[in-house]
Amino acid sequence: MRVPPLPAEQWDDRTRAALRPLLPRERRNPEGAGPAMSTLVRYPELTEAYLKFGVHVLFRSSLPPRVRELAVLRIAHVTACAYEWHSHVEMAPQEGLSAEDIAGVQQGRLPDPFDQTVLDAADELREHARLSDRVWAALGERLDERERMDLIFTVGNYILLAMAFNTFGVEPKGSHVPAGTAHNDREQVV
């Protein structure tokens, strides 16, 4: 682990304040914050600035939650980001994704044409940093302009998190398993 969680004895008021955009007061501590947030708070100013955007992407975006989770899981899988994979696999059923959908995300193939378009969008954005006209138009059959913008920023956000978490060595709580493996501990999702 290159950047370990901040030790409990180093947490202070500034550290806790950095988590204000995401976590309730009772979770702004070394035990409640989870491994990702406990690592990010090593740099409180960056964490606070980033979380304002991250909260929009996860909780306030115009993107339908099912579409968001398809895109997030695809990025978590193709970037081998174990922390994000485990966090969002647990969240996925609440947003309407089945075990078959999750397996399809891993394979890059889903039977529903629109769901497949969402995976294609995530793959294109990761590989080419842009969407093809075909995928942009296909997304437009169900998503308005703002929703498509939110999809692009969602994919970009989770690519950024994958880069950070994979580089820092952030793992799911109590886990040393690769992305794509089920995990039972509930963590704060980022």
From TrEMBL:
Gene Ontology molecular function terms on file: peroxiredoxin activity
Carboxymuconolactone decarboxylase-like domain span: 44-123
InterPro entries: AhpD-like (IPR029032), CMD-like (IPR003779)
Pfam families: CMD (PF02627)
Protein's recorded name: Carboxymuconolactone decarboxylase
